[in-house]
Design goal:
Length: 209
């Protein structure tokens, strides 16, 4: 099944895009601001916004709802508007280059989504091996990345022996001081930088985020 492009554009622009539907290789959805429609389609890969339709210096509220999709803003020299976009294209552009831009932005966005994880008010960047909050970050190890992922994804307290088996591939009877030591160091890093003592919680049943 084809991926879909959700397009916010003028009538002329939408007609032009529609003429090259087969060349682009996507199913196209043209948003009509005069109608209310459900746009929660998981097959939508990219949001295309022609800036000439923006009457103000920001995107309409409907566009702001698509935080989980990449936004490609199309502009000319004289009609640039502010918008929370992922990439900007200066018009005019050939349809071949336009198609390549869509592929590029969709691929990069998927990689970004897969390499980051939102945990509480933090972002875990698995690719850069960093925990970020606002403009502050700390660097962590590969093992600490796996440890945080495990604790967060399980959604329940995990025992030391379980963590040891999953992260270090040790038997359940192995020494659990390895887990304690790594969690202690990770907590220390987080507290030193973010003054947060509750990122990793512990209790009788184990550790949890």
């Amino acid at each position: 099944m084809k991926s879909k492009l959700l397009i916010f554009g003028s009538k002329n622009f939408n007609n032009l895009i529609n003429e090259v539907r087969e060349f682009l290789g996507y199913s196209l959805i043209f948003y009509d601001f005069s109608k209310k429609s459900s746009l929660l389609d998981p097959l939508i890969s990219t949001i295309i916004v022609e800036s000439s339709i923006l009457n103000k210096k920001e995107c309409p509220p409907i566009i702001k709802k698509f935080e989980n999709k990449p936004i490609l803003l199309l502009v000319t020299l004289d009609n640039y508007k502010e918008c929370n976009y992922n990439e900007k294209i200066l018009l005019p552009i050939s349809f071949f280059d336009f198609k390549n831009k869509i592929i590029k932005i969709s691929t990069a966005f998927k990689f970004s989504i897969n390499s980051t994880l939102k945990i509480k008010e933090y972002i875990l960047d698995k690719n850069e091996k960093k925990i970020k909050k606002d403009n502050i970050f700390i660097s962590i190890t590969e093992r600490e990345v796996h440890l945080i992922e495990l604790l967060y994804n399980q959604k329940k307290p995990l025992t030391k022996s379980y963590i040891l088996k999953k992260i270090w591939n040790y038997s359940e009877n192995a020494d659990t001081h390895t887990v304690e030591t790594h969690i202690y160091r990770l907590r220390k890093k987080i507290y030193a930088r973010f003054n947060d003592e509750k990122f990793i919680l512990s209790g009788d049943k184990g550790y949890i985020i």
